[in-house]
Amino acid sequence: MPVSKATNQSHQMLGTGIQEGLLLKPIRYQWAYDLYNQAVANTWFPHEIQLGEDLGDFNRMTDEERHAVTFLMSYFNPNELLVNKALALGVYPYLNSPEAHLYLAKQMWEEANHCVAFEYVLETFPIDRDEAYAAHRDVPSMAAKEEFEVKYISRMTEQSLDITTTEGKREFVRNLVAYNVILEGIWFYSGFMVALSFRQRNLLRNFGSLIDWIVRDESLHLKFGINLILTVLEENPDLQTAEFAEEIRQMILDGVEMEERYNHDLLPSGILGLNASYINSYVRYLADRRLEELGFESHWGVSNPAKWMATANDTLELVNFFESVNTSYEVDAKASS
Description:
Largest sheet: none
CATH architecture: Orthogonal Bundle
Helix content: 55-70%
Number of domains: 1
CATH superfamily: Ribonucleotide Reductase, subunit A
CATH class: Mainly Alpha
Strand content: under 5%
């Protein structure tokens, strides 16, 4: 039986045809397949890290320092699962590309793995779980961030998007910006910097290793999300308007403002070597990088105050970053000939 010619829609990233995207080869979006293979090579499991060895550090830390760790867990834990809902309900159903579907399936597993990793932290350290879980609802600055994210996913999940329309495609891109760029690319990285700052003072070293592995995953999530946004914009000229570009830019600026308020609650008095102003300088630096990666001018023009985080957040140097760290943990590594 002759194979019918594919529709134009099947040659694009966006599409909802169930029978489209069932053949992986020939690869159309090589970047998505490369990211899938890298993600598989980076597979890790939380309980391989001996978190119990950090208990002595945790017990010696100040109330402010323990508050920061608890606050981070209360934010990260539910949001890993929220990202999965955004991917499963708001991204995966609207793509044709089988290589993008492969990557998203691995990313969803990684988000689940991160959730388990943060549960491991809550099980190991003497953290009040009820207090940690309640904070994402009870702390206004944290609740505002969650409300922002839920607003975007609700638009996509409570009604089906019609991605044959310009407005439907705009909603799809808004969701990607909210989750991949703002939540994962700015808010998560702000938290990673705080979490890793303890190791800079020789505290919570195993916890730091756990965060390293999560950052490595998130670097790929960010790379995939930005590539996906740019691909959809390139393939859909009707989205390329000055008004829509300004809306996206403003979303990122609003995200920074919310994060700055949150960081004052995270570190109300500051801890050794770290305070809200320092973190917020880093947030603005991150946001400038995300703006540039999406094709905008930088907004704040601030330098990186945490240069020790540079390898973790520079997606443009992602390949070099992975070449430098893969030897520490990689599955399915090819034996050198």
